[in-house]
Amino acid sequence: xxxxxxxxxxxxxxxxxxxxxxxxxxxxxxxxxxxxxxxxxxxxxxxxxxxxxxxxxxxxxxxxxxxxxxxxxxxxxxxxxxxxxxxxxxxxxxxxxxxxxxxxxxxxxxxxxxxxxxxxxxxxxxxxxxxx
Length: 132
Description:
The chain is α+β, with helices and mostly antiparallel strands. The chain has a single domain (about 1-130), classed as Helix Hairpins (Orthogonal Bundle), CATH 1.10.287.370. The chain is built from five helices and four strands, in the order ααββββααα. It has helices spanning about 1-15, 15-60, 100-115, 115-120, 120-130, and strands at about 65-70, 75-80, 85-90, 95-100. α2 packs antiparallel against α3. The chain is elongated, with a radius of gyration of 24 Å.
């Protein structure tokens, strides 16, 4: 592997200025793509943590409790809690799935707290590339 890296260095020495500029642009594009992907993962993790907290708060409410139910990010309608053990999850494009709260809590816990699923390698990537 070390010899392969040395070969690339020799090839770069033979490149013209235009080729080096194109290589730099390609590297910048790839770096920006990785940085955008990392930001998207951070955003998704934050949204998952918010959903996990909301699910926990919902499970603490008594049955029949009056509440505002979100239809969109900015539209809420009055409703009441019928069964905190089952929730409807919006999976996009107007489709909802009824899921058991305990299963969702377990899924949230696994995703947020198990290093293999959380992406321990992202921390290494941040430290290596200086993205933090």
